[in-house]
Design brief:
carbohydrate metabolism; ribokinase activity; about 30% helix; 9 helices; Ribokinase-like; UDP-N-acetylmuramoyl-L-alanine:D-glutamate ligase; globular; alpha/beta; about 25% strand; cytoplasm
Length: about 290
């Protein structure tokens, strides 16, 4: 089972002729609202990858629909607290030429307390996964608590903050980050990725695939990307991570877990949207990646 301490956002998309200049008022010709936040995306991906996932998070009274949608998508929601503040959200303006501007508000995501986290993890079992990203508070406490309880700790280091990653390094079993983030972490710690005290590190390389650094086995293995025509890369990394941890929770080997996660991420970039359009296992099977 996966326990995901993660953000929950309302993604508000406003479609405009052009982005407004300072002081300009412009009418949107379309509006869409979807479920988002790196945490919610990963929970949905893990659930669609066929494993149990309990989301640990918080929303405001305006965010009840986000909890209902997570539940609809197969995510367990008993440890999502409703508190007296606004739900986290992103207001995203998209112009006809593809340019965008985004205003983020963390809201309830930054009101998650150690008491909420502790109450959830008290129900976890040794061998379960704790999954985290950097859009909530309480990560260090959660990592230390999970490690003490015998959980496997996975950290998706985004939005990237090298100092925060360094704080939780002693309790992480699996780290997922991109190439730029890996370089920044090496500079902060003064150590190469393959010398960090973490069993497994996955470095995503975009269209080039990813590499698996096994510090336990002292090996590095590369995985090429699956060729697809990308139309929207939003949420692809979250989809990859959710599928990866779900596959490992289902006892797949790391190479098989990475292959499945890469297929899910590849299919995700052919879709427009975030959590609401994350593919499930049948979508991947129907696509027939093995035949490409």
């Amino acid at each position: 089972m996966i326990w995901n301490l993660g953000s929950i956002n309302a993604d508000n998309f406003y479609y405009l002729r052009h982005l407004p200049a300072p002081g300009e008022t412009i009418a949107a010709h379309d509006f869409r609202q979807g479920l988002g936040g790196k945490g919610a995306n990963m929970s949905v991906a893990a659930a669609r990858a066929g494993t149990r996932v309990m989301h640990i998070g918080a929303v405001g009274p305006d965010g009840k629909w986000t909890v209902d949608r997570l539940l609809e998508y197969g995510v367990e929601t008993q440890h999502i607290s409703m508190i007296d503040t606004a739900t986290g959200h992103a207001n995203i303006c998209v112009a006809e030429d593809g340019e965008n501007s985004i205003v983020l508000f963390s809201g309830a995501n930054h009101q998650i307390t150690t008491q909420m986290i502790g109450a959830a993890l008290a129900e976890a079992s040794p061998g379960d996964f704790l999954l985290m990203q950097n859009e909530t508070l309480g990560q260090r406490f959660a990592a230390q608590t999970a490690h003490t309880l015998g959980l496997r700790v996975a950290y998706a280091a985004a939005p990237f903050d090298a100092e925060i990653v360094a704080q939780v390094l002693p309790d992480i079993d699996l780290l997922v980050l991109n190439e730029v983030e890996a370089e920044a972490l090496e500079k902060t710690t003064g150590a190469r990725i393959d010398a960090l005290p973490i069993d497994d590190i996955i470095v995503t390389l975009g269209a080039e695939g990813c590499k698996w650094v096994s510090n336990k086995a002292k090996t590095v293995q590369s995985f090429p990307a699956y060729p697809v025509k990308a139309i929207d890369t939003t949420g692809a990394g979250d989809t990859f991570t959710g599928y990866l941890i779900a596959a490992l929770d289902r006892k797949l080997s790391m190479p098989d877990a990475i292959a499945l996660a890469m297929q899910a991420g590849a299919l995700m970039v052919t879709r427009q949207g975030t959590a609401d359009v994350i593919p499930d296992l049948k979508d991947i099977q129907d696509h027939g990646f093995d035949e490409d």
